[in-house]
Specification:
Length: 226
C-alpha cells in the first residue's frame, strides 16, 4: 500500500469505474504512437485467453490509466509515485496491480516501443484473474526481496536466465514482485524472442504448472508441448 492511499471495495469501485479514454486530451505524438486504442486488437484478445468478457470495466479503466501514464511520461514525469496519483494507485490496487509494475511497462514502451498495449493488457489480465480467483481480490501484504531471486547467470538444463524468469513470473502472478524487478524487462523479452515464447502465455503456463518447475522447463525446451 502506498502512503496516503485507501483501497475501495472492488464491487463498489467497479460499479462506477468505467472511464473511456479521452483521446482529445492526448498529445498528437501519443495518438500517433498508440493509434486506435478503443478496442483491444485481435492479437490481444487471443492472448488474453480465458478472461471473462471483452469489455470488462477494469480493462476500460486500466486502459485509461495506462494511456494517461504514457502521456505523463512523455511529458517528463518520472517515478511511479509521481506518474500516478494516490487515487489512481488505489484504483490499480483494486485491480490487483501495483503502480511500479505499470510504470515499468509505460517506461519501456516509451523508450523501446515494447511491450505494446496488447501485450500489457494480456499480461495484466492473467494477473487480474489470479487476483480475483485465487487471492479473492486481496493484495498480499508481503513481497519478495531482490536478494531472493536467482542470478541472471543461473541456468537449468543449460538454459541461462530461466531460473530467474520462473521466479519472477511466479512473483508477478502473485503480486509479490519487488519494485526493483520487472516481469517483461528487456532481458525477459530477449529470452522470449529467442525461445519463441510470449509474455502472457508463459505467465499462464506458470500458473498452470504451480510448483512443478520441471513442467515449466519442459514447456520452454519443447515447443510441441505448447
Amino acid at each position: 500500500m502506498y502512503p496516503g492511499t485507501s483501497v475501495v471495495p472492488a464491487a463498489q469501485f467497479f460499479a462506477t469505474a468505467r472511464a473511456p479514454v479521452r483521446r482529445d486530451l492526448l498529445s498528437p505524438r501519443i495518438r500517433l504512437l498508440w493509434g486506435d486504442m478503443s478496442q483491444p486488437s485481435s492479437a490481444s484478445a487471443a492472448a488474453v485467453g480465458s478472461a471473462s468478457g471483452t469489455s470488462a470495466a477494469w480493462q476500460d479503466l486500466f486502459h485509461t490509466l495506462f494511456t494517461l501514464g504514457l502521456e505523463r511520461f512523455s511529458g517528463g514525469t518520472r517515478g511511479a509515485s509521481a506518474l500516478f496519483s494516490a487515487a489512481e494507485v488505489a484504483q490499480l490496487e483494486a485491480m490487483g496491480f501495483r503502480a511500479q509494475e505499470i510504470y515499468d511497462f509505460v517506461e519501456d514502451n516509451a523508450n523501446y516501443g515494447e511491450p505494446v498495449w496488447a501485450t500489457v493488457l494480456a499480461v495484466q489480465t492473467v494477473r487480474h484473474e489470479y487476483f480475483t480467483k485465487v487471492q479473492d481480490g486481496v493484495l498480499p501484504a508481503g513481497r519478495y526481496a531482490l536478494a531472493d531471486f536467482p542470478a541472471k547467470s543461473a541456468a537449468v538444463d543449460g538454459i541461462s536466465w530461466l531460473p530467474r524468469l520462473i521466479m519472477k513470473a511466479r512473483a508477478k502472478l502473485r503480486g509479490q514482485l519487488p519494485d526493483e524487478l520487472m516481469y517483461g524487462c528487456a532481458g525477459d523479452r530477449h529470452f522470449f524472442a529467442e525461445h519463441r515464447l510470449e509474455l502472457p502465455t508463459f505467465l499462464r503456463e506458470v500458473w498452470r504448472a504451480g510448483e512443478d518447475t520441471a513442467a515449466i522447463v519442459e514447456y520452454v525446451k519443447n515447443p510441441s508441448s505448447r
